[in-house]
Design a protein that fits this description.
single chain, 313 residues, alpha+beta, Nucleoside Triphosphate Pyrophosphohydrolase, 2 domains, six-stranded mixed beta sheet, 15 strands
Length: 313
């Protein structure tokens, strides 16, 4: 069954998930030049995307609200912007404006929006920019001090490095890899979904199993380990499906389809409220939002596309 699903990979190889599809050229060679970065920040045509407490600023049309460098300078923030990249020769930056009590004075400002909610209506390209910007701003907020010596660190290379002048250490933005997998039984007619322990327990919401990839662990090993730990199911073949940046705070979701070698579920209650097998009919109804008990993730999440890749095969 997994081979049949995998044979359809051509139909989704061009799939671009929400938070992917960033159109900006990240211009690594340019951001290494501090003089170029300074000129780009001061350039009248450069564009700045404001964030406040990790919420993105949208205009009245619900699109990303880009403002000028002059607008940002007027706020006297003292926090350097993060260089995102270039498009059509124009530099684009993200700017943390959390210290500003009222953003309505900015040109074309509509409202601040949670990035998940914004991504549901933004274009794929704009959601990709949000993913990069939110993750990097959050990283700077969390990593103000050197993890080697504890001294204050500073932003460098347009915000893609934090440098410690006390000990000379360089710190780079982190991406945490997560394996997320749809497990299919030997008949090919059931898939394994779980409900994490916590606030969604008992809601009827189930998703693909997932977990962080450990150091020194391959993707395939992580898939097998996580499924064994969370559900007690042994997994054989593992095939890559697609990936999705998930900037909450800085994960990369690595989507896989996996073949179960056993069927008896043994739940880890510390991790999961429930794990169960669901039939194709169950999943079709859940995707159509007509199932009386089961809910599954919407199109913003890679889990939705893993589930749909299987059920539509």
């Amino acid at each position: 069954m997994l081979a049949r699903v995998n044979a359809q990979r051509g139909s989704h190889m061009s799939l671009v998930h929400t938070f992917a599809g960033n159109p900006l050229d990240r211009a690594d060679a340019l951001r290494r030049d501090p003089e170029w970065v300074a000129r780009a920040i001061a350039a009248p045509d450069s564009r700045f995307l404001p964030f406040a407490n990790l919420n993105v600023l949208l205009n009245d049309a619900g699109e990303l609200c880009w403002v000028s460098g002059q607008e940002i300078a007027r706020l006297e923030l003292g926090t350097p912007p993060v260089f995102l990249g270039c498009q059509h020769g124009i530099a684009h930056f993200a700017q943390d404006i959390s210290a500003v009590p009222d953003v309505q004075g900015l040109a074309n400002a509509g409202r601040l929006s949670d990035c998940r909610m914004a991504a549901m209506t933004l274009s794929t390209a704009e959601s990709g920019i949000v993913a990069q910007a939110r993750a990097q701003i959050d990283w700077h907020r969390r990593h103000r001090f050197c993890s080697v010596c504890g001294a204050n660190s500073r932003s460098d290379r347009g915000g893609h490095v934090r440098r410690c002048d006390a000990c000379g250490a360089e710190h780079f933005p982190r991406t945490d890899p997560v394996a997320i997998m749809l497990v299919i039984d030997h008949s090919g007619e059931r898939c394994l979904l779980g409900q994490p322990a916590g606030r969604i327990a008992g809601t009827g919401f189930y998703s693909a199993l997932a977990g962080f990839i450990d150091q020194g662990e391959s993707i395939e090993e992580a898939v097998r380990r996580e499924v064994r730990e969370e559900a007690g199911i042994e997994v054989g073949a593992v095939h890559y499906h697609s990936s999705q940046p998930w900037p909450f705070p800085s994960s990369l979701m690595i989507g896989c389809l996996a073949q179960a070698q056993s069927e008896t579920i043994t739940i880890d209650p510390a991790e999961m409220a429930d794990v169960a097998w669901f039939t194709r009919d169950d999943i079709r109804a859940a995707l159509a939002e007509t199932h009386d008990r089961l809910k599954v993730p919407g199109p913003i999440a890679i889990a939705h596309h893993l589930i749909r890749a299987w059920v539509d095969n």
